[in-house]
Amino acid sequence: MKIAIGCDHSALALKETIKNYLESRMIPFEDFGVFTSESSDYPRIAELVSKAILSGQFDRGILICGTGIGMSIAANKIPGIRAAAVSDPYSAILARRHNNANVLCFGARVVAGGLATLITEGWLNASFEGGRHAHRVDLIARIEQQYMIPTPNGQQEQTKEPTQPVELPAEDPDLP
Ligand code: RB5
Q1: How far is the CA of 88 from the centre of ligand 1 (A)?
Q2: Most buried residue, 4, 51, 149, 161, by most Cβ within 10 Å?
Q3: Which has the closest alpha carbon to 46: 58, 28, 64?
Q4: How many of the other CB atoms lie within 10 Å of CB of 73?
Q5: Is the beta carbon of 72 within 6 A of some atom in ligand 1?
Q6: 162 lines ligand 1 (CB under 6 A)
Q7: What is the sign of the dihedral through the CA atoms of 63, 157, 132 and 1?
Q8: How far is residue 148's CA from residue 145's CA, in Å, rounded to a whole number?
Q9: pLDDT at 4
Q10: Per CATH, which fold does 3-125 belong to?
Q11: Average pLDDT of the residues in 126-150
């Protein structure tokens, strides 16, 4: 598993803590910045890390800003990215098991190094359970697709209105 990691100026120290943890577990990673404490724009780093995952060169991403929220909002704008902003290990584990989150976000102003390491560990060790959760993650992808329109250069951009009505299949009655 190869990790793309990034942060904004508010999270340099915590990013180093997480990099040290990844090194201790011999998990390969690449740091996509930022590298100085100069004020920076978290959406730029969220986009770099997200694109690295979509390129197939990285399996998952970790994004850290002040709260984790801005990074997650920005990353979730990119089709195929499922970013979870969490502050506790339980949510981090469930973000993998139920939501198949491929990006983990947390806030350097919210969680300290020890907790952030436990959050990262839980998320890395957990696996997607599939089944009814796969159905729900597929529904997310379906919504994503229905709000995209093709552009002349072959890429897609988001539109305010869905190109077709969003029709969601009936809910799986089985389980919570
Ligand atoms: C930077 O001050 C802060 O807004 C950013 O790190 C992040 O918390 C945004 O969501």
Answers
A1: 19
A2: 4
A3: 64
A4: 15
A5: no
A6: no
A7: negative
A8: 5
A9: 99
A10: Ribose 5-phosphate Isomerase B; Chain: A, (3.40.1400)
A11: 94
Q: Where are the domains of the chain?
A: 3-125, 131-176
The predicted-structure confidence for 86-103, as pLDDT tens digits, reads as follows: 999 999 999 999 999 999
11, with CB counted inside 10 A (0-12, 13-18, 19+), is buried
CA of 170 to the centre of ligand 1 (A): 38
For residue 173, report the distance from its CA to the centre of ligand 1, in Å: 40
pLDDT classification of 161: cutoffs 50, 70, 90: low
pLDDT at 46 over 80: yes
Decide: helix, strand or coil at residue 100. coil
Task: Calculate mean pLDDT across residues 10-21.
Answer: 98
Catalytic positions are 65, 98
Residue 74's pLDDT band, with cuts at 50, 70 and 90, is very high
3-state secondary structure of 139: helix
CA 19 to chain centre: 17
> Do 103 and 61 meet the contact criterion of CB atoms below 8 Å apart?
yes
Tell me the pTM.
Answer: 0.89
